[in-house]
Structure formats: structure tokens, C-alpha cells
Description:
Elements: H1 2-18, E1 28-32, H2 37-50, E2 55-58, E3 70-72, E4 75-76, H3 79-94, H4 105-119, E5 124-128, E6 145-148, H5 156-159, H6 163-170, E7 179-182, H7 187-200, E8 203-206, E9 211-215, E10 220-225, E11 233-236, H8 242-257, H9 266-275, E12 283-286, E13 290-293, H10 299-311, E14 320-324, H11 332-339, E15 345-348, H12 359-369, E16 374-377, H13 381-391, E17 397-401, H14 404-416
Parallel strand pairs: 1-5, 1-6, 2-5, 6-7, 7-8, 13-17, 14-15, 14-17, 15-16
Antiparallel strand pairs: 2-3, 3-4, 9-10, 10-11, 12-13
Helix pairs in contact: 2-8, 2-9, 3-4, 6-7, 10-11, 11-12
Amino acid sequence: xxxxxxxKLDRMRALLLALGQPETSFPCVLVAGTKGKGxxxxxxxxxxxxxxxxxxxYTSPHLVNWRERTCxxxxxISTQAVIALAEPIRDAVDRLSPRLGQPTTFEVGTAFxxxxxxxxxxxxxxxxxxxxxxFDATNLADPLVSVITPISYDHTATLGNTLxxxxxxxxxxxxxxxxxxxxPQPDEARKxxxxxxESVGAHLEEVGREWHWSRQTRDVIRIESTYRDFDVLETxxxxxxxxxxxxxxxxxxALHALGGTFRIAPGAVREGLRTIDWPGRLQVLSDRPLVVVxxxxxxxxxEAVWRALQRDFDxxxxxxxxxxxxxxxxxxxxxVGALAPHASKIYLTRSKHERAALPMALEPLVRSVAPRxxxxxxxxxxxxxxxxxxxxxxxxxxxxxGSLFLVGEALVWWRHSPx
Length: 419
């Protein structure tokens, strides 16, 4: 299996070589992890942009449009730019040796992003790893700083079914002699990351060891460090939940580690963290009833969402109405177990994505975990959104979750639905 993954990197390496090695044309930060890596990429990019630098941001998956994955200064790549890049990328793919096989969709998308950032001369690229890290297409970039966000169970068929195995894959993005930042981790994962950092000679900093945050008010946190050259930073974070405060602290640590190359002023950091726009993460669409969407797709993410709903929302709702749709292979038991017991009514549905799980397959699990809830199946996601919002009273909460694909469809439906 490892040999097959290494072979995929050979194919990606050949593709980038055929494109003139665009990954070498700009400095970058590489972000791996299970939870929060997209949010952390968005935060780092927002702070860099607030400092007046051109920030290239590469994330996946997208919510509504594929172009969202590749942004400069938070603006998605234009259709015209995609068309202009398509020809050289197609030519490069055609020149690949047949023995390497055809590139995957993710590999081609990564090539698009790297070539776009190179041609547009971004000051810094901030790249989200796809799956794992060690054998991911993005890992052919050479990051100034490597970041590992919280590790939990996901993609176990590919990465292994232990936190140690998953962490080993994530830690593959660490570089000798370069700084690395680790968000708070379960002990099993933390020990692997620390061991791998020592093995390759990366300088590892950890949130919870060198970096800490504390709550000042409901909206403001205080970030401190053991490093003497870092002054205390008090800042608002524009995304809800303590997990996002962990991400913000990880972001500040990464920006501090970039100090030898980029000096991002504290004011720019505060501005970036305060004004960040990252849809689909505890995003509030309506106040009365409270309608919230979040792409939580494993147990740890769902538990973080529930904690945030309890702590950060100044709203005593009467009923929780849950709209739930997962992708196949995700931790259905973990997500359902974290959220379904709190719901009065649950709509099971599916996104239009090819990997969407059948709602009927989730029904027995949901009924066993939430026997008192009213459970309904809606094969079409739009009908589930419509039914849930119609059923909600002014003092109820509607939560749409389980998949970013489902959240993306909810955002489109909300934008066009009459209210």
C-alpha cells in the first residue's frame, strides 16, 4: 500500500515537472490534520492578506463551486483563469508516461492551484493537505512552516484505524530544520507527531505547551506564548466555538514562525481573525428560528459543534430540529451519537454528491440513539431543508450538518428560497 501511495507521488512529481515546477515559485505553508485544517488555512490567509500581502489559498472540498478551492486574497479563481490554465495542464497530463497512470481529480486540482499561484506571483501560498499528508499531492511543496491541526478518526480505510497510524501520515509534512506547529492533540497522536518531528529534525511548537489561549469575554481571547519575542495578543475570532479558538492560536503560532520571512503586524493578525469569512462552519443563516449550518463529519467535529451551540450561542431554543446527511465511509455512529440524542425531530437526507450515504441506511442507527425523536426521510435535500424550516417555530433551532456537500446545498437553497 505504501508503495502504491509513493507511486502516486511519482506521478504528481512528473506532472509538476512538466509544468515547470510551479510549487518552487512561491513560499508556502502546508496544513494537515483531521479537523480545522480548512479553517486554519483560511485564518492564516486572512491575516496575511490583512498585512497587505497576496495570499494564495488552496482548500478542499468546496461548498458550492469548484473554483472556491483556489483563491487569491479570498477571491476564487476566475472562469477565464481556469480556461487559460486548462491547456498547459492538459498538455502536461498528455505527456505523462503511461506507466504512471492517469492523475486523480485532486492531483489535477492541486496542479491548477500551484500553477495559478506561480503565475500570479503570490507572496505566500497556504495549502490544505487533501488526505493524510505523507503521500498527498500537496506534500511536494516545500513549506516554510508545517501545521498539523487536531487529529481524529477519518479516512481510516486509507490512513489506518488507529490514531498512531493517522498521525504518522499527517506528520509526513514536517521538514528538517523548519518550524512546525501542532494544535492540541489526543495523547496517542501527539506522541507520534513529537517523535516524527525529532526524527526529521523539525522544530515543533505545540498549542498547550508553548502557546496558550484564555477567554477574556464571550468574543475575545488572550493568546500568550513562552517565546519572549511575542507580546500578548488579545483578539476577537470571527468563527464560533472553542475549536476555532484553538485554530486561531495555531494560526498565530504559524505566523510567528514565519517571522524570519514575513512579519505580520499584530494589528493585521487581529483584523484577519476578526473579519474572517469562512462559510459552512457554525454559520448562522437566521436568528428566529435559529438556523445554523456546519460541515461536521466525524465524532470529534460533531462534539465540538454541540459544545459551541451550548456555550457560544445566546439562545435558549425550545426544540432542536436536525437535518443530517453524511458521506459514505464517514463516522456515522460518532456524528449521530453526538447530535441526535438532543434533537426532537430529525430529517435524514443526502446531498447530490456521488459518495452521499443513503438516508435509509442511517435510520436504524438514528432510531436506536434517539428513540424519542421524530424521524423522517427526505431523499431530496431541498425538501429536507424546506420541511425542517417549515416545522421550526420562532424559538426552535434548525441544524444542518454531517457533510460539507450537504451544507453547500443548504446555502444554495437558502439563497434562493422564498421566506
